[in-house]
Records
---
Amino acid sequence: MNAPIIHGGGITAAAATFGGRVEDWLDLSTGINPNPVSLPEIPTRVWQRLPDRHLVETARYAARDHYRSGAILPLPVPGTQSVIQLLPRLPQPGRRVAILSPTYGEYARAFGAAGFAVDTVSDIDDIGPEHGLAVVVNPNNPDGRVYTAGRLEALHERLKANGGFLVVDEAFGDTSPETSLAPRAAALSNLIILRSFGKFFGLAGLRLGFAIARSDILARFEDWLGPWAVSGPALFLAGSLLNSDVSAILRSIAERQAALHAVLVDAGLTVAGGTPLFTLVVDGRAPGIYTTLCRNHILVRRFDYAPDWLRFGLAPDAADDARLAAALRSFDR
């Protein structure tokens, strides 16, 4: 059995090791908007009933407009992780799977558990005719690497020529819509795009995402997930928030990113990559910095495969920026 992946957000475990109340920790270990949007009132009937079809349709049309997917109505799913578990059902058994790496570890784990040979590649030019499916996270987590739509389309055509599929994970795509393949998805028959709802809106606990692909692929996902896979409240919020003006969210995230970079640079740390929702730092002192921050009840993301990496998420406000800055100053260099 593949070992579980350690992700960000493990405040309970960190508090058990370093002390303090969970609610007093500052969690910078995830790439989630730290200032959740204001929620509209959810009618009682939405909580009371199984999700009605009109809720699903409203969410799908709102997602189509927000993600600019044209003729494709994105499929609501209970978090994109749910679809990752289904992806091994798509390629023919015996075909190899390519994952542009390093990246989100659950892809390799899901395909490995399903018995596929997984190639972790460093560039899309390393993906060949032997691959029945390839995964590209764009923008990438954790380094923020971005591939142009043109290169991804060319990769799609190479894979399609040999019956293969291209999966593009755009979980962090809301802050850079110009990088998205969604507007071209209707013309790319072997493409599956995954979008996260909770990261951008600051509602990760809602467990909501969307899949964008041709209708027969989406129908298979819907069948595999079963009825009522997404809750009524989640669908209602998607229908409301995806139709809203998100310019204030984008400004807030940009302001928080600028403040984080100022703290990191002032602490003498090197910004090596990232997206507006997180920043990657590369530093040989990373293990000591991580421990110092934990002792100050601040959690960041570390990586077992790259011990000199730390990923910093956004702090909610200036007071928490100052808290992070003070903790970094306390590090014994």
---
Amino acid sequence: MVIIKSPREIETISKAGKIVSLVFDELEKFISPGVTTLQVSNLAEKVIRSMGGRAASKGYEGFTGAICTSVNDVIIHGIPSNKVVLKEGDIISCDVVVEYEGYNADACRTYRVGKVSPEADRLIKITELCLEEGLKFAKPGNHLSDISHAIQVCAESNGYSVYRMATGHGIGKKMHEDPMIPNYGEPGRGIKLQEGMVLAIEPMILQGKKEGYCLNDGWTIKTIDGKLASHHENTIAITKDGYVVLTK
């Protein structure tokens, strides 16, 4: 069941989203060659706590990190570690969920570590564009799959593939709520968008094949062919006329 949020609830989610955006501001300055993914996670948690929030990923179904840190061919759910040292040319997707006053906001950014290849740079830019294209359809009366379809078209028309075994989702008191939001599919299907829906839209775009596999840790999902992956996400609220981003 999709839970419609009240203006008060959306305002609280927006406060959580502002903390997420502050985390991204700090990570942008911090991420560099020689830094470990555990240091990245620890900084994120420090910022979240300083603002009165909680790193919702920490302890979630046994996950040990405050955020997910997915490097290069890791699509999602990379576990922060002092053994993973960032190097020049890497890319790292940092997926941050903040709980504040009982409500969650979720977003992800893919960062460049130093100077990256033109191929890596383009993948990140197109992943961001995929979200932009999907959000053009985020307004009351449109179908949820209109967003999904636009993301897929943008990715595939630029020579990339969409990871299909994970989706976006509703969000609120729980990190994951209905509906699931695939990044692919035919338009005009599924539920119709309504004012008050709060959704985490998150294209996961792959340089190569669309398949991935899970490591023995039970979390880390890597591309099947070892090629790069990029992940971009925002939490939005559907408004009377369109949408507003809550994690800017």
---
Amino acid sequence: MSATVSVVVPCLNEENRIRILLDAIFKQTYLGDLVDVTIADGGSKDRTRQVVSAFQSEHPGFRLQIIENPSGSIPAALNNAIRSSLGDIILRLDAHSAPYPDYIERSVAALEAGKGANVGGVWEIQPGADSWIARSIAQAAAHRLGVGDALYRHAKEPAQVDTVPFGCYRRVLIDQIGAYDETLLANEDYEFNARIRLSGKIIWLDPAIRSIYFARANLSGLSRQYFRYGFWKLKMLRRYPGTLRWRQALPPVFVAGVLTGLILSGVHWAFFVLWLTGLLAYMVVLIMAGLKLAIQRKDYILIAGLPLAITVMHFSWGGGFLYSLFLGIWKS
């Protein structure tokens, strides 16, 4: 393999994770002189830049640069990093990720074998902190009740898919379909991949291409993350309604049902019984899932932690989606 690869990374306040990412990239099996890394920093207030500078001093031959991302948004960070890099191939990573040593090698091999226009792999989700709630969030972010049939979280076989999180593609693809959409502050990967598929090209996922993803460390961070996902998902769906999947439709439908049932409960006691029965059934399903996982993992805090984390994910995602819908109706 002789193709040059530019790794692009959006970053904001990642002093605890950025060194893990840089060490993982430095240890890649793909020839080091063919790889360059551009970190687009959105104005970090912690020690992120000092950590990057220390890494640069320790590895003076490693082609690493950090650039400004004034807007602070992820799509703008990606576009700025791509414009500042020179590689034939672009590979997007996150500052709270750690690719396996052969991530670049396997990604480039799949791309050069013609498997897809954008190729990627599977996340192995790990806790973002050493706490019971961080462990619970990590398990929820990988659980089917939390994320549905998203194959990049649990695929066992290579497959053509809708999206991959840390994609690898040729730079010329940007010229063909356009850059990341900077009007979307979330779901930029999914929207980018939607345009790839609409152009007749393939998104390819190979579970042999693996990376570690560090989930949010607490419920407030998880809630903000999933509210943002839901809010911006609606804006993307208005452009590409055919990309809606059942796993994305269920949270807003569920939250709308809970709110409607709560309102109707004040009209007649029968509605309250139905509302309460539905909520209890929901919690029983989540608790049973938590019990099963707790036994498998021998981590019994998951009996409570998994239902709690999944509930936050569902209500935050669904609430963000409905709030975006409300704003759209109100402003129209």
---
Amino acid sequence: MLAVLKEHKGFWTSARKRSMYAGILLLILSIITQIVLGRFSSRVAVDAPSVRDIFLDNLPLVNMGFVIVGGAIVLWVFAWVLLIVHPRYLIFSTKAIALYIISRAFFFSLTHIGPFPLRYSPGPHNDGYGLYHLVTFQGNFFYSGHTAFPFLLALIFWENKKLRYLFLFLTVFFGASVLLAHVHYSIDVFAAPFIVYGMFVISTKFFPQDHALFAS
């Protein structure tokens, strides 16, 4: 703990503090965007037809609610603790995560497809995770956040092999979980890493000085 405090004390120059404040504002904006567009998409998708899916048509339906909800919350908490412990990653990652949230909200608000008919969908009244459902809505399909977020973390911590492999494993694990629960279509899962990689590269172009702190 003392080592972490010491690292923070020597890290936060005035310029870095201003950049961090900008990242926090961008993150707040991204969450508001997700809530607004998520609610809109959820309302429109209620009456939208579902589509056939080669994976969901053949995969058994499995109750993965404890992973989809509880696991996602644990991952988000773990990720932010990890970033706070390593401040040189924190500024860039806050901004990159914000851009990822905005991009996903933009994408799932464009095309309105109904949920797959046979699915396990954790609800706010039967899983005990009300906080999760404040920012997650039915009809928010493309692209899968459960697949995208751990892949983004793998890109952020790419130079750390242990963390890279952990987050790559979680990308596959969460992707498989949402498919087994039939809460995402397969294109939502398989497209997520490609889009997130693009968003990561865009983030490095938008925030080069923050990204350069990785090597400090």
